[in-house]
Amino acid sequence: MGAATPSRQERIEVEAILQSGMFQRAPLLENMFRYICERHFEGRRDLIKEYTIAVEALGRPAAFDPKKDSIVRVEAHRLRKRLYEYYHGPGAAHCVRITIPNGQYAPTFIQQQENPEAADAKPVEALLETRVPGTAVFASEVVRTIEVKPLTARPVWKVRRWWAIGSSLLVLCLAAAGLNVGLFHARKKQPASVAEEKWAGTSATPLPSEVRFLAGYHGAPFMDVQGHVWTADQYFTGGHSSPIPQNRMIEGQPDPDLLKARRFGEFRYDIPLGKGTYELHLFFAETEFGPGNPRGGGESSRIFQVSINGVPTLRSFDALAEAGAPNRLDERVFKDIMPAGDGKLHLSFQPLNAAAFLNAVEIFPSTPGMIRPIRLVAQDRPVTDADGRVWSADEYFEGGHPVLRNTTVLDARNKALYRGERFGHFQYRFPLAPGTYRLTLHFAETWFGMPGSDLPARGSRVFNVYANRVALLQNFDIARESGVNREVTRVFENQQPNAQGVLSLEFVPIENYAEINAIELVETK
Questions:
Q1: Residue among 361, 327, 366 nearest 345 (CA)
Q2: What are phi and psi of 76, to 5 degrees?
């Protein structure tokens, strides 16, 4: 690789600082640093002013008054101090230094004089862009695991020489011996992991018709509440495994204990499938970036690309932004998926500004042009109706409270659908492929007006129902529609998922609690 241009060197130095851990637990400081550097690279240094930094980087309102609020000056002072400490410590040997001159906010990039005695050693800039052969690991990730303490008693050129020589030898030794390397990931040191992971099984035999596995998970098979078995990770090449802390709550999972780990980095899956049309589900939950997570930040902190059989399908994908919050499931559904000419489904994950990641994969046969209907009951176990169709146990909900009723709904052909209900103020987030769907909601008033309730039926439960914020039912009173202990169904045609591939159903109380017994979504075109 040839010598990096000054701009390239500057960008490498910015990334090195962002990955150094300097901004751990200091999201405002990181936002400011990112902002001033991005404007510098865009050639818009004229925008690097106190007001624009406050509003665009630090979240202050448009009415921000620098005479009354000194946040930019305070953060700039903190940033100068941390940069000074960094370049008198871990960054002492770097060929580029970043400073924020007093009285200014725009960054200055200073090219350090190169050490002639280290001319034969590979430059640090090149090392930062060098892959360890056969891995998805950059040398920068190896180098950043080394703590370099200030060597005030030694000349700077000696520090640079030993840093460059030591870094080069370390990379060469790791490449030759295939040793484990410690990645600096999530802006803090993490346990050492294999430089490149590759599944040791065979991919010659097509998988069974339904496939479910947990990315980055290497434990025993797991059975979810629907009775589906999820296996350990398989058919992968590249990337790294990382468990999700057991106390981490992932909002919107189809099973509360489903997501156990993730695969991150640059990696791919080559999954053997029989001929036919399949439905593919990819599961993402951002547990590193975002408020309250180890790496802080928010939207745009992690952007990557997902390709299916070589075709970019999720471009500039930001799982946190798509889910709307960190630690919330974003499940993407794809229909009409078929294996490539070699009989395999190829999924590739390429980082753009941070490591790509994946939590789980689900594949099963489907009718061409349509996804499998979604049918669920507000119960903790699947139910089979009078037509032999299986309704899934309750899933994809946020909020509300489940309850089972002992009463049997009158005159309903599928009485089993009404044995349980979810009540309260709650919503469901159904992952769907693009298309048009028929939505059927099943209700029965089995509490108000029944023995044990102190309130009459009519008027005691009134609520609204919204689909992607559009009202479907307003001032809906189940008992007023049909009386007590009797089924009520409402059908809504032409429902479509939003840009994130989600149909969100929100149940909002007006009088007492909203309620639902069962939900059905069938693609119509």
A1: 361
A2: -65, -40
Say if CB 365 and CB 209 are below 8 A apart.
yes
Tally of structural domains, the chain: 3
Say what the pLDDT of residue 255 is: 87
Distance CA 183, CA 6 (A): 27
CA distance 459 to 164: 77
Residues 361 and 378 in one domain: no
Measured distance CA(341)–CA(515) in Å, rounded: 49
C-alpha span between 478 and 480 (Å, rounded): 5
Of 307, 340, 365, the residue at which a domain comes to its end is 365
pTM of the model as a whole: 0.64
For residue 462, give its domain range.
Answer: 374-523
- Hey, is 350 helix, strand or coil? strand
Alpha-carbon span 463 to 427, nearest angstrom: 13
Can you give the CATH number for the domain in which 485 is found? 2.60.120.430
Q: What's at 31, amino acid-wise?
A: N
Nearest CA among 304, 480, 333, 509 for reference residue 422: 509
Mean pLDDT, each 10-residue run in order, the chain (525 residues): 62 86 84 92 91 91 88 92 89 90 92 49 34 40 37 40 46 41 38 67 77 94 92 95 89 89 96 94 96 91 96 96 95 97 96 96 95 96 94 95 89 90 96 97 92 80 97 96 92 96 97 97 93
Other CB atoms within 10 A of residue 154 CB: 11
| Strand locations in 37-136 (E) | 96-99, 108-111
- Contact, 429 vs 398, CB < 8 A? yes
